[in-house]
Amino acid sequence: MRPIVLKIGTSSLTQPDSGRLALSTIATLVEVICDLRDRGYPVVLVSSGAVGVGCARLGLTERPKAIAQKQAVAAVGQGRLMRVYDDLFSQFDQPIAQVLLTRGDLAQRSRYINAYSTFQELLRMGAIPIVNENDTVAVDELKFGDNDTLSALVASLVEAEWLFLLTDVDRLYSADPRQNPDAEPIRLVEQMSDLEALELDIGGRGSQWGTGGMATKITAAQIGTSAGVRVVITDGSQPRNLLKILEGADIGTQFAPQPQATSARKRWIAHGLIPAGKLYLDSGAVRAICTGGGSLLAAGIRDLEGEFQPQDAVQLCDLEGREVARGLVNFSHEALEKICGKRSDEIAAILGHDAPETVVHRDNLVLAS
Ligand SMILES: Nc1ncnc2c1ncn2[C@@H]1O[C@H](COP(=O)(O)OP(=O)(O)O)[C@@H](O)[C@H]1O
Ligand SMILES: N[C@@H](CCC(=O)OP(=O)(O)O)C(=O)O
After folding, report:
1. CA 74 to ligand 2: nearest atom
2. By C-alpha distance, which of 158, 153, 163 is closest to 270?
3. Three-state DSSP state, 183
4. With 60 as the cut, is the pLDDT of residue 111 above it?
């Protein structure tokens, strides 16, 4: 069976007023995870809460803003959080494993494959990996920034069947239901592009302790569904609903997986890598790669930004700056500055040596979903 990934946010793990752990919710979640294991599902839990639990432990009443303080608080909270999980899972003789990741761990192909092998091995051993961002050492450039995105990348990495995003609202609405009582519930999203027509208001940062709010859950749904994962946003205070959803109940907001899931390597190019630059393409080049299935040639590039080397990831944008694709570039930014807008047969003479015919080959290019 393909794995199930569950992500639980700080807002569901802690009590809103005191910031203390919501122990009964966590205990029910643990029971549900053990039930899923009994049904044969490998399970990965992505758990937030290090900063929230650390704050409660240290008597802080607000999430710290200074980076060093947040990192220190996360170091206090992460250990406590794991201890609580281990105590509860031990009641079911269920081994768990702590996996702390930074973006850099997935950005390099060899480290990505290494992370893949470790997850496979943990799941084969019957352990439940409990994943969080390695907040204590993550620096800004190498951060996922929020666990919604991290959970979708993990779901893609382990080729999960389901990703459940457990939060403090029962589903996605047309607007933040806390601000707007007339907000309409959204039950099923067949295709991510359907969301544009709904003109959602997904508010700001989320609850006091949460990071990212609904916006990062939509990003997670985008990453997950493009990897063939069914993504569900649902109420974290009702973990038993997960079992009902698996049996077909209409609970939460479900995002249908894309039928043509992209290959593991292309998923890594699209979401694992950290882009080092941007190439701005004219409309002919956008058409060639988006509808013609072609590679990107120097002739279609109008401008570029950033400093990159061959095989780095770059974003391919139209002239309005909208990202249309991502790919591995065959030239450094210095070489590309000399040849952008030029025909392929002029390139060798301009650079003074043989050069690849394409700037981004179609095998190394992934369209934005
Ligand atoms: N359109 C929307 N539909 C549902 N919730 C929304 C919407 N826009 C903003 N929100 C807010 O997002 C919050 C959940 O995000 P967040 O606090 O980051 O949770 P978590 O800690 O679970 O990641 C909800 O409490 C809700 O107020
Ligand atoms: N890594 C951080 C959580 C980051 C995050 O995305 O939080 P949340 O929005 O509560 O899921 C922590 O453990 O506190």
Report:
1. 14
2. 153
3. coil
4. yes
